[in-house]
Amino acid sequence: MVRESYEGLFDVITDAANTLWTNWIVTGNPGIGKTAFSAYFLYRIFRQNRENNVSLPFVYEPAAGKRRATRYLLRADGSASYSHHGFEDTLRNEQVWFIADAHSPSGYGSAKVLLVTSRRRPIYRELRKAHGRLLLMPVWSELEIEAYLQRSATSMATREADAYLQAARSAFLCWGGIAREVLPLAAADVQALRAAITKCVLHNVINSVGELAGEQDISHRVLHIEVLPLDPNRPVDECGRRILPYSRDRLRFASKWVSERVFQMFRTEERDRLRRFLSAAADNPEHASLRGQLFEEYASNCLQTGGTFPRRHLETGVGDELQLRPLTCINFRQLTEIDLSIPDRYYSPTNRNLAAVDAIISPNVFLQMTVSRSHPVKSEGLRLAISRMPQQAGPAVLYFVVPSDIYPTFPRRTHLGVDGRVLETRPAEVDAAQQFALCIDIDML
């Protein structure tokens, strides 16, 4: 299966506008198909060369592990040969590609370089110093997983296919988009993931920002690299360089299932450190994503338990308190599964990327958890969520659930369209929704 990101990464690397860069690094979590991308890249370049009547070889150096590295010369006529440190004459050609898998490349002469590797700085540090551009491969999305499952299931008997689909979908809810763990006929045992969680300590999670450890470490099982889309309002970086697709990222916990268990473990075993991190990380943008996810788990716990919470209307500035009874938590995958006519329900999506809302309290309360002062509303996602309200529920209420440090100055939010740009006009039901800031006191953790 050719992933959409394979095509996207290939287009970025071979874009005529990017010829200034000849060294490229494609990184990401283990088990998502980086080695398969190197094969796809070879295929596409071979085909491109043939269409342009270009006869150029390639040099490919696969992962060697503890063995001595072997490199292969792949010629345009389909023939090949191998050597341990050869092909120097070929690599003097600036149009030749040298492709290395999972180890630091060396002896590549004047050739263009593609390195595919997990996100470990010691492997790609030297290539970065040689002006290598870093691109990121995303983990598999739920849509990609489902497409692969449906294709695979067509060759199975009905009962076997149903069992496979159910097991893989359950594995995805725990492991997230790691194809190696989710897609095999015998999906990975969740006990291995539980073991990785129990070995987590907050200090190591924080230090994983910018670098995930390798195959033998547990951090890549618990944390995933999320590739962010381009920001249409910020086309260049602080140095004036064009920001490339697949170059923006943040760390996220592998799944909602993982983040819930990690938070509960930290709350039980490292409560003071967790409280300090949620407070101190407010001024550290590198840790904003992890802080936000842990805060979301804490806020969800507080709201489901019920109680009294300070709130402030974002239009009028008037403050009062919200009283909540204990709520029953219901997990859901799609908005069509929720019934907002049932009172005192706290609907929590198993898909963490549900647009616009992080949770819904029946019948008309929509929650967005954030630790950032700049958190716009995704208008279309909110409209779809509001459409699930019963007619007699009244206007929708959108709460931005925020920590106490930003609650006093949290402003009214702008609305974004599906293209990520600010909307001048909004759907009527979205425009009618009242916006509040809702305060969660971290000191009470």
TrEMBL record:
Protein name: Uncharacterized protein
Top-rank lineage group of the source organism: Eukaryota
InterPro entries attached to this UniProt entry: Crinkler_effector (IPR052980)
Organism from which the protein derives: Capsaspora owczarzaki (strain ATCC 30864)
